[in-house]
Amino acid sequence: MCRTNSRDVYAVIAPCVVMAKCLGLVPPYDSDEDLNIRRRLFNQLQLIATFVIIIWMAYFCMKTDLELPSGGSLVMSQSGAISIFMYYFQPICGTVGNRFHNKHINRVYASIHATDEKLGTLGHRINYNDHWKVTISLTIFSIAASLIVVAMYEVVYDFRYIVGAIFFLLHYVTLCNYAIILALQLLQRYRALVEVFRMYFPTNPTCSGFPSVHTETTVCSEKEQLTVLKQIKILHDKLNDVVELVNYCFSVQITFCVGLCFVIGVVCSFGLFRAFIYRNELFYMGVLNFIWYMYYLFFVLFFIAVGSKITREGKRIGVLVHKAINCSTSSAVINELNIFSQQLLHRSPVITCGLFVYDWTLLYTMIGATATYLIILIQFDVSFPNLVNVNGTTSNGSAGT
User: What are the CA-CA distances from residue 229 to residues 187, 220, 236, 343, 401 (Å)?
Assistant: First the structure.
C-alpha cells in the first residue's frame, strides 16, 4: 500500500493491517508493488513460518482438546470432535484466502481512496481521525478481550495451551476485524454519498409540493444539479463495484467463520444444556465454553450488522431520489433522477457470499437452525448409551470371561 497522506484510508486500516501481518494473514510486502527477490523471498518465508506455527499449535492443542472428558456422553464427544477440527482448520482457510486475494484487497483500498478524492470535489470531506479511532479501538478491544477470554481457562490448561489458544483466537478476530473495517469504510462512503445528494437536491416538499425556503438543502441551478448528479451516479456505481470486490475477497473466509460459529454454537449450547441438567464436574467448563462461543459470535454479528446497514443505506438513497423527484420543477433533472432510480433498482449494495446475504435474516436463520440441531442432539443423547455405561459393560464382560 502506498500512503499519500498522514490521514487517509490507508492510515485508517493500518492498525488492523499490522495485526494481520504479524499473524501471517497478509504478506509483509504488498504483492502489487515491484518487489525484488529479497522481499519476495521474505514473503514466502513468512507464509511457510505461518503454516508451520499453525500446524504445530493445532497438533498440540487438538490433541489436548480431544483428551478432555465429555461427561460420559457419546454425542458430546463426537460433536465436540467435529467442532475442534473446524476450529483449528479456520486459520489455514483464512490465511490462504487472504493471501490469494491480497492484490484484490489492495484494489479495494485504492478504489475507496479514489472515491474520497471525488467526494472532496463535491464538497464532502471524510473524517479520517474518527475512522482511525474506531479501528484502533476495535483492535485494542479484540486483543484485550481475547486475553481475558483465554485467561479464564488458565486454571484448566497449561501454559503451552494458553499460548496456542491466544494465537488461534487472535487469528480469528483479526480476520473478522479486517473484513469488518473494510465494510465500515464502505458504509461511511454510502452515507457520505447520501449527504452529498442532500446538499444539492431538496427532499422535503411543502404542502404545495415545492420546497420551502427553510429546507435543509441549498437549491442549486439546473446545470449544477445535472453535473453533480452525473458524478453521484458514477460514484455510486464504483462503490457497488467495490462492494462486489469485497464480497469476492472475503466470501470464503467469512463464510467459514459463520459456519464455524454455527457449529460451535450448537455444540456449546448442547454442553451448557448438559451442564445445567446433570450438574457434574464439567459444569464450569460448559459455562466457559458458552462464554467463549458468545465472544466468537460477537464478531460475526458485527459483520452482519454492518452488512445490513450498507443495504439499508443503498435503499435510503433510492428514497431520497424519489423525494427529490417530487420536489424538482425541472424536467431535465427529473429525467436524470428517474434514470438514477433505475440504476439503484438494478444495482443496490449487498454484502453476500453467494449462498446467503449478510443481514439480520441470516442471524434469525442461525438461531432457528441452532435450536433445531440442539433438539436433535438432545434426542440422540437420550437415545444412545453414554460412554460410562459402554465402558462399564465392556469391563464387566471382560471380567466374566
Answer: 20, 12, 10, 12, 89
Q: What Cα–Cα distance (Å) separates residue 380 from each residue in 73, 214, 278?
A: 10, 67, 16
* 125, three cell numbers: 470531506
Distance CA 194, CA 100 (A): 34
Q: Whole-model pTM?
A: 0.86
Query: Can you name the residues that pair with 357 across neighbouring β-strands?
Result: 352
- Three-state DSSP at 244 gives helix
Q: Give residue 398's pLDDT.
A: 40
The SS3 assignment for 34 reads coil
Q: What is the mean pLDDT of residues 365-394?
A: 73
> In angstroms, rounded to a whole number, what is the distance separating the alpha carbons of residues 30 and 37?
13
What is the separation, in whole angstroms, between the first and last Cα of the chain? 73
Is 204:323 a contact under the CB 8 Å cutoff? Answer: yes
- 8 Å CB contact between 248 and 163: no
CA distance 78 to 306: 35
In contact, 166 and 147? CB cutoff 8 Å: yes
Rounded (5°) CA angle 331-335-338: 135
The residues pairing with 211 across neighbouring beta strands, listed in sequence order, are 205
